[in-house]
Amino acid sequence: QIIILDYGSQYTQLLARRIREQNVLAEVVDFNLTKADLLKYPNLKGIILSGGPASVYEENAYMVDKEILEAGYPVLGVCYGLQLITHLFGGTVEAATKQEFGKAQLVIDDLSNILFDNVPNSKNVWMSHADHLTTIPNDFYQIAHSDNSIAAIKHKNQNIYGIQFHAEVTHSEFGAEILNNFIFKIAKAKKDWYMSTFIEKAIAQIKEKIGNDKVILGLSGGVDSSVAATLVSKAIGKQLTCIFVDTGLLRKNEALQVMDTYAKNFDMNIKMVDASELFYKNLRGISEPETKRKMIGKLFIDVFTEEARKMSRDAKWLAQGTIYPDVIESSKEGHSSKTIKSHHNVGGLPEDLGFELLEPIRDLFKDEVRKVGRELGIPDKMIDRHPFPGPGLGIRVIGEVTKEKCDILREVDDIFISALHEADLYTKVQQAHVVLLPVKTVGVMGDNRTYEFVAALRSVDTVDFMTATASHLPWDFIDKVVNKIINEVKHVNRIVYDVTSKPPGTIEWE
Ligand code: XMP
């Protein structure tokens, strides 16, 4: 495996992805690691130092224990990583008068260097740096340059490399070859990170860890908790009990579908708790979005905790579908990262429930979770589901939430989502849903005046859900959907399509 010391670059995760795509396990770790910590990685083949926004010559700059660099593992410093190596080995790094952002031509000086095997000379690479090397440390020599910078160096006797450019981004031509040369030819890593082997290993580990104990898990129907549940269930069968809370804020037939898929197909113990009345009752009279969110979150925890406590005489473990990006985000707090996403997940359970935690997919990225899910036989329809917020329809019924309004919204949403599936559009957009507005407008149906609610269709294209644009759905398609809704759903007589991007809009309306 390869470890990546994280100095806060926006590309750190991408580095890990690129390596995992080559079937080699890569893990992002804190830069504060000590030489003794390296023993935690018995299959360690190489170390990468990531990029980062800081300058190595600043007073509190993030460093690396030099012993780690000299521990005998092949090392590759990328951007800030290269500058850090330079700084620690006695070279100099200074603010550049000509900063490089974007494409730059890479000229290879040491054509026989193994890092550049099968890489043609004079290719474009992606640069993004304000500092640059002005003197190379004595023990190093230059192996490539660009117009404005020393682009790559190597230690004279050891396998320590540094590159100024970002080989991990696709804009770097032959970037993948350069990374692969480091991973396979220099670090000599083996291809042994496959989802099927992951499943075998994970099941064996769960069996060993859990023994004859009992485990509970909060199933939401989303991909992460479903994959975690299926994996644990394959390992220990009926020693696992899942708790599925019907908040009354789920989509049409959702509770049934979840029960059907998991209880029937996977023979899992699932305890469904119908708490919908409790949720509707407590949401009465509340219309402010954050107050609703907090109320829903609190009720969810109450209901789950009560069920879990009932079982806790027996159960020792709480399994959760925590995935790798969650782990990186939370471990970064106060460390190298400048941007921290706020996690507003209703499934976020308090730590003092008194269980030991079992997190079987905490090493996986989202698309790896999906691959594992498919291999485990979870139906595509479940795996490809768009994200659904923890507070559910509670934040899609704008203003006060009632059962009646949720019922109307469920029908409209179901027509829209089913139509997207039928038109083969569902997997082409990243998130689609309907919002019910607390507004009535006048319409006409037959010879009669109507005075009913407005519903808004929302569909977005996005990579990371941090920014998004409205999907350009075909007009004919929208036309058909609108017709069907107006004809079939009582109490809605007008549909609008939300064309706002994020920012300034958010994906949800509340
Ligand atoms: P926004 O509305 O912030 O949404 O653009 C970005 C993504 O996050 C989802 N979302 C939530 N997920 N609890 C969740 O678990 C929440 O309170 C919540 N609010 C928004 C939203 O559906 C979208 O995928």
TrEMBL record:
It is an enzyme of class 6 (ligase). PROSITE patterns: GATASE_TYPE_1, GMPS_ATP_PPASE. Pfam families: GATase (PF00117), GMP_synt_C (PF00958), NAD_synthase (PF02540). Keywords: ATP-binding, Glutamine amidotransferase, GMP biosynthesis, Ligase, Nucleotide-binding, Purine biosynthesis. Residues 193-385 form the GMPS ATP-PPase domain. ATP binds at residues 220-226. Its EC number is 6.3.5.2. CDD domains: GATase1_GMP_Synthase, GMP_synthase_C. SUPFAM superfamilies: Adenine nucleotide alpha hydrolases-like, Class I glutamine amidotransferase-like, GMP synthetase C-terminal dimerisation domain. Pathway: Purine metabolism; GMP biosynthesis; GMP from XMP (L-Gln route): step 1/1. GO terms for molecular function: ATP binding; GMP synthase activity. Catalyzes the synthesis of GMP from XMP. This is GMP synthase [glutamine-hydrolyzing]. The lineage of its organism: Bacteria, Bacillati, Mycoplasmatota, Mollicutes, Entomoplasmatales.
